[in-house]
Design a protein that fits this description.
This protein is of the alpha/beta class. It is built from nine helices and seven strands, in the order αααβαβαββαβαααββ. It has one domain: 3-Layer(aba) Sandwich (Rossmann fold). Strands 3-2-1-4-5-7-6 form a seven-stranded mixed β-sheet, with helices on both faces. β6 and β7 form a beta hairpin. The radius of gyration is 17 Å and the shape is globular. Bound molecules: S-adenosylmethionine (SAM).
Length: about 240
């Protein structure tokens, strides 16, 4: 996939355009499994009393809400560069009465507006493949967390199974853009998704990148026939 397809301004505009239908599309396109994937990823964070986590590319804040549900006494800061997505997240947080535990704000994943060693863990779900300089994004996620804490990355990956792969490629290149366009009402908005899913580095390569930016004990888990992978690395 060429780099211009990941132009940050184009990505920002695209997410603000589909924001109003984003949650519904997630549930429909993943047949509801996306919630379980986020829960699994959140469970990889190191848990501690009164921990404060960073949710990068928080979007409509589903991961931030999952952290609050799963980790007692936790707080979350979420950052995203799409105002449209952030606005919807803020409504969900307010409706859940969680304004005192989740704070979301504008921010770029490649230049996080936080000091070093601020958080007890950082997580990104379905965001890293959209970040043009994703190595810088991962490095930033490591920079802002304390020693002994983890960076967790949940992302689509390329299905390897010979039997399942053709079915998967058909689903994401034919069915998914069609449903995406139908539900979002935006022509072409979901054409970018299959490309970004099929061209993101395979799990071994992403693991290597995490190691290159200094994360340690890097490992990954493939979920649901390898549709997604959850990578975990520790800051020593
Ligand atoms: C597919 S959504 C994922 C949202 C959420 N994490 C979830 O699990 O549903 C991707 C999000 O990444 C955000 N994003 C992409 N590149 C970014 C960047 N460089 N900095 C901040 N946010 C970014 C987009 O605005 C969008 O909200």
């Amino acid at each position: 996939m060429n780099k211009s397809a990941k132009n940050p301004e184009k990505i920002q505009t695209m997410f603000s355009t589909i924001a109003h239908r984003y949650d519904l599309l997630n549930r429909v396109l993943s047949l509801g499994i996306d919630r379980r994937w986020r829960k699994f990823a959140v469970n990889q964070l190191v848990k501690s009393d009164n921990a404060h986590y960073l949710d990068v590319a928080t979007g409509t804040s589903d991961v931030a809400l999952e952290i609050i549900n799963s980790i007692q006494g936790s707080k979350v800061t979420g950052v995203d560069f799409s105002e449209g997505m952030l606005e919807l997240g803020k409504v969900k947080i307010r409706n859940a009465g969680l304004n005192d535990r989740i704070d979301v704000r504008f921010g770029d994943a490649t230049d996080l507006p936080f000091d070093d060693n601020t958080f007890d863990g950082s997580i990104i779900a379905f965001g890293i493949r959209n970040v043009q300089d994703y190595k810088k994004g991962i490095s930033e996620m490591g920079r802002v967390i304390k020693s002994g804490c983890r960076v967790v990355i949940l992302e689509f990956t390329t299905v390897q199974s010979k039997i399942f792969k053709p079915l998967y490629v058909f689903y994401i290149t034919r069915v998914l853009p069609f449903i995406g366009e139908f539900i979002s009402g935006k022509k072409g908005a979901y054409k970018y998704l299959p490309d970004s899913m099929l061209h993101f580095p395979v799990p071994e390569e992403l693991k290597k990148t995490m190691e290159e930016v200094g994360l340690q004990d890097v490992s990954y888990h493939k979920l649901t026939f390898g549709i997604v992978a959850v990578h975990v690395g520790t800051v020593k």
